[in-house]
Amino acid sequence: TKTIRLNIPMLSAAMDTVTEARLAIALAQEGGIGFIHKNMSIERQAEEVRRVKKHESGVVTDPQTVLPTTTLREVKELTERNGFAGYPVVTEENELVGIITGRDVRFVTDLNQPVSVYMTPKERLVTVREGEAREVVLAKMHEKRVEKALVVDDEFHLIGMITVKDFQKAERKPNACKDEQGRLRVGAAVGAGAGNEERVDALVAAGVDVLLIDSSHGHSEGVLQRIRETRAKYPDLQIIGGNVATAAGARALAEAGCSAVKVGIGPGSICTTRIVTGVGVPQITAVADAVEALEGTGIPVIADGGIRFSGDIAKAIAAGASAVMVGSMLAGTEESPGEIELYQGRSYKSYRGMGSLGA
């Protein structure tokens, strides 16, 4: 879209055998963006979005905290559940009083003691002000030989936490697709039917970067209405609408308020739309028509479906698409959801269309 720039022109399909948080993280680290599918509860979809947003960030804006009265046993349970061991210690008023890390409690046997006994106290903490330059933060952390710095305001209220790990990750993946706060970008799909308002609200609250209003037939009143309503409620939200296969469809989506238009009805490797209906538009024609129709609007076109080889990506971009959406190409990866199945000595993962009975 106009405000989201990718470093590789690839989006992962919002399908339940392709994209959940793990694949979205891997793709965003390489410079693309993943779209979390909608075949799950609202809470779980929002949680998947949060997982991507929290995975790698310059500043963890809402770090998990503990109170001075929290017991070490509770901290141990938190560590086992979350996979990390450093927790800022704050009062009820969110005033920072210390930090408890794995090192502080490694050899403690009495786990009923409160955090306040073993935490690193306020005086010895490494704190930085909000918006301080990365170099300053790293220098402070190096000087004190610590791995975590806490971001505070003038009243010493906790705003966030910076970890060395995130800086290292950022250096290893220089092309990662990130937002202004240094968090990985992620998209999520919603349907056009009634009852999707709550899903949209939950995803926006979770921090989704772009919303995909997803339908097999995007040039329909239901989809256009959903786009108009979402645009009215969230004027700055990035919205992708689709799918269409004609110039008129692309124009209709743009007029309804889309930030980008997704093109492709029936080209997918598992898609039977054209076969069943006996009618369809070849993908390169559909992409070229949509690009021509949107010329001068600044609204990009995404080619969705039929990408089997690297050459297909080149063709889509030559036809005018800004990016491609891929499903089958990523469905067999380690990061995609689903169990690995062994068949005749080879490993497989299942891949199905979102209109199939199973989905």
Task: Briefly summarize what is shown.
Its EC number is 1.1.1.205. With about 350 residues, this protein is an alpha/beta fold.
List the helices and strands and how they pair.
Blueprint: E1 10-12, H1 21-30, E2 33-36, H2 42-55, H3 72-82, E3 87-90, E4 96-100, H4 102-105, H5 115-118, E5 120-121, E6 127-129, H6 134-144, E7 148-152, E8 158-163, H7 164-172, E9 187-190, H8 197-206, E10 210-214, H9 221-233, E11 238-244, H10 247-256, E12 260-263, H11 273-277, H12 283-293, E13 301-304, H13 310-318, E14 323-326, H14 328-331, E15 340-343, E16 346-349
Parallel strand pairs: 1-2, 1-14, 2-9, 6-7, 9-10, 10-11, 11-12, 12-13, 13-14
Antiparallel strand pairs: 3-4, 4-5, 7-8, 15-16
Helix pairs in contact: 1-2, 2-8, 10-12
Whole-angstrom Rg: 23 Å
Task: Classify the helix fraction into a percent range.
Answer: 25-40%
Number of strands: 16
CATH homology group of the largest domain: Aldolase class I
CATH fold topology of the largest domain: TIM Barrel
The helix/strand order is: EHEHHEEHHEEHEEHEHEHEHEHHEHEHEE
User: What strand line-up does the widest sheet have?
Assistant: 1-2-9-10-11-12-13-14
Main sheet specs: 8 strands, parallel, barrel
Name of the CATH first level of the largest domain: Alpha Beta
Q: Any idea what the CATH architecture of the largest domain is? A: Alpha-Beta Barrel
Note poorly predicted spans: none
User: How many structural domains in the coordinates?
Assistant: 2
Mean pLDDT level: 90
Helices, by number, come to: 14
Kindly name the structural category.
alpha/beta
Shape assignment: elongated
